[in-house]
Fold each of these.
Amino acid sequence: MTYDDIARRAGVSTATVSRVLSGSGIVSEERRRRVLDAVDALSYRSNRAAKTLRRRRSDTIGLIVSDLEYPFVSSFARAVENEAAAQGFAVLVCNTDEDLERERFYYGLMIEEQVAGVIIAPATEDIRMVQPLVDARVPIVTFDRRFPDDPFDSVLLDNASATGMLLEDLLRHGHRQFAAVIGTTTATPSRERLEAMRAVLDGVPDATLTVIENDLHGTVGVDHALETIGPAVLDRAERMPQRPTAFVCANAIIVMSVLSALGRNGFSVPGDAAVVGYDDVPGFDLFATPVTVVNQPTAWMGATAVARLVERLDRPDAPATATLAPPFMRHRASCGPR
Amino acid sequence: MTYDDIARRAGVSTATVSRVLSGSGIVSEERRRRVLDAVDALSYRSNRAAKTLRRRRSDTIGLIVSDLEYPFVSSFARAVENEAAAQGFAVLVCNTDEDLERERFYYGLMIEEQVAGVIIAPATEDIRMVQPLVDARVPIVTFDRRFPDDPFDSVLLDNASATGMLLEDLLRHGHRQFAAVIGTTTATPSRERLEAMRAVLDGVPDATLTVIENDLHGTVGVDHALETIGPAVLDRAERMPQRPTAFVCANAIIVMSVLSALGRNGFSVPGDAAVVGYDDVPGFDLFATPVTVVNQPTAWMGATAVARLVERLDRPDAPATATLAPPFMRHRASCGPR
DNA sequence: CTGAAAGCGCTTACAG
DNA sequence: CTGAAAGCGCTTACAG
């Protein structure tokens, strides 16, 4: 079944078939009917590859994420897929595990697929990584991460507010020795949150802040992170002159890993130390110590990222937009009282 | 940059370029070199749409899931993407929310995309749903679900063993009144697990089993399920002649929803009732009552599904394989003692 | 408003 | 082992 078949049956040219089916160009009502009837009668299915080849652009968008297994990511991905489908796009998902080589590979793939655009959470803030996409004029929307000076549309958490909310809660409960437990330092959230923490704590005379990094580049999956981060964090904490009384964790997996290590070592939460984090997860309210977190509106962020991309298709040269998503607190028990 | 450019620069025909780059056909070592050099020099990128159009088959596979936000699903999806990439395929994800209309729509999309194959968890066991895919000769691998008589390659949990493990634990702890809390009844896991429960409990004289369904067709997301299932379950349980002492939940979200409702209504677990389920989730060991579950080897299942699909491409007419994944228990506190 | 025809970038018989 | 050429199924100037 091709346009030829439809054209023959409807007694029109393939150009007319194309005009009707693509909704472009003007066609007389009568011919339109005949075409549509033929399409039905033949139960025609379009050939997307042919369309893509001819239009030099597919109706697919690429979603390149660090790890689909992280709750924040899968929830975001779900929203992206949903909104993309509503807008007539299919979505290609790619998982990089924060591995720059894989990221580079996927950028190449996006070009070969001639995707309409990409939604990415780049593992580094070095913009040279995405130069191939820029050269190929592939529209880019970043989420969770951004590049210096916001050259592309971006959708990310208002990290400063989120951090402020967390620290306010912790400070109110009397905490002064903080440990920031983060993953990949080259990415935006770690940087912004650290900056925000420093800014807030600069105004608190007796406050201390220690940064505990966990380089997870190329690491495989949630389970590994769960097992290794907590022990590494405790190990670091032991060696510190002043033991931290509050662990601020960059994501839900880190929260769990730290809670678990603390528990195994006989520490109680929040008695011996508070543990709070970014990203809520189903079940945090059912923990032995329910976990206090700031959450991101992931579904809204996913839908917004697609919306920005679609707007971009219409107006390639409009100035880039930077959308900050509002965080919201989940006050639970893990932040104190001390 | 097209084959024409490469051919011109290398002083060969486009046919030769194709033979070199696709790895098919025999080409003299010298010409091969020249082609490869030209490819490098021009930093050529292939056009996948052109390949697809010509070969009538893309290097993409479709992954159609019920809800990417469910931990089992996102973990499976991650493994699929990973293995697919290793085998040279990109993956198109589609989220159906168990909505048959969306499922049908995506099947059509798969045909239009001329995907190399699909990995699906069909929402119903009615095989007529996938007839379009069959007619279009799109290879199918089902996961989590299957069709009667296993007409396609399938990868799913050994539901009978898994159920047996759960019941054995519960029976050992003295439970006799069981409630099975399930979602969509038309899908495989519910059916198989119920059958297995009945088979086991038939041999236990004083055992009773009540089935509590929660039709989530077309329901939006994890949050909604979390809020509504637990209360509905308690409501049902109240009206039963004999209150169940053990809730066997079909997935991790149902477990959480039931635990949460129980807690809000002043029931203790496992004191007043045991709550166990299928699928482990990071954090279940940190719950106020750590949750006993049978888990599925999701990463292995995802990789296996892709492997089956790739094998199928080579041998379209080989008999269908039915792969049962081995469940493994996570013995924790929520199953008893009573 | 409509159609004939070129062309998007590949692959693959076919002939040599 | 190699190349000329047809063709995959669409879209889009172009001419009318």
Amino acid sequence: MGIPAMANPDDLAADDQKLTLETFLPYRLNRLADAISREFAKTYRERYGLTRPQWRTLAGLGQNGTMTAKAVGEQSAMHKTKVSRAVAELERRKWLTRRRNTTDRRIEHLTLTRVGEAVYRELAPLAKAYEADLLARMSPAQGKSVLQGLNALEAALLPRR
Amino acid sequence: MGIPAMANPDDLAADDQKLTLETFLPYRLNRLADAISREFAKTYRERYGLTRPQWRTLAGLGQNGTMTAKAVGEQSAMHKTKVSRAVAELERRKWLTRRRNTTDRRIEHLTLTRVGEAVYRELAPLAKAYEADLLARMSPAQGKSVLQGLNALEAALLPRR
DNA sequence: GTAAATTCGTTTCATTTGTAACCATCGAAA
DNA sequence: TTTCGATGGTTACAAATGAAACGAATTTAC
């Protein structure tokens, strides 16, 4: 009851003009990614002193075997300079080796060494366990909605490829 | 039919030991956040040369009126040095002013100036439009699952507060 | 009261990052 | 074949970032 409030176009406080940061999709997504990234990074940082680009490179090579730096970057959505630096460090640790392609000498094939593989075999289950653990914090229905939501966002945001 | 393959514990290629990066939750979340952040950032970067911390600070103050730097950081999940630097730049541009609290002189209250408010009033609708646009790229059911998924993740990952 | 611990916010410094320039190589076109 | 543009990868430089130290003000413990 009562007369509806007159909207004042000059009023910054007009609620329909405002943006609620807490419910704003880019912000929510960023905060979640930041939180999950930080949490999960403990797994590989504390144990092996890996940075995220290094972890991703290791994960890519562990998953796919031999890859080029370009392929690593594409698979893991990393800038090529990040890949380059991560590869350099993993090579320095002797966790991977490079081999120049003989027919196209611009390309180099990256492969995990035995040591690198051993690390991967230790880290991959930890990663899976982390994910399982995270999903275990929610109900099955919630877990399902998470996967569906991610699928929908990927379809809307990452159409290319 | 056929005898199940014997698992070879030394084989890196044993699929159940591998981690598929493309389906790994932290990775998916990070890639999505990165994509959406980049896409949306065009809105405020091209037009106003704002960085993400600056945009968030503006958004916080626009939404809430006067706030302390600490409150800005808490609301927008930013490190206090990021807030400090964003505030310094927004002040330099005369988009906000500081006012020392008289009873506790450690605290300063931040408020948008008229110019700052004007920018906010231009940017907030653009942000909402971006979000609406993104959701319009999917079906209503997909949009719903996105929100449900985010809710579930937040409940699992950000219990504090 | 005073000393110690805490809080708000800034600054310093080392690290990480991205852009752009770069080098080497390759493929296509002339 | 020479040249020109594209490609794989690295490097140089500047900007953004975070950890830690800091200064000033406040609160707590004694």
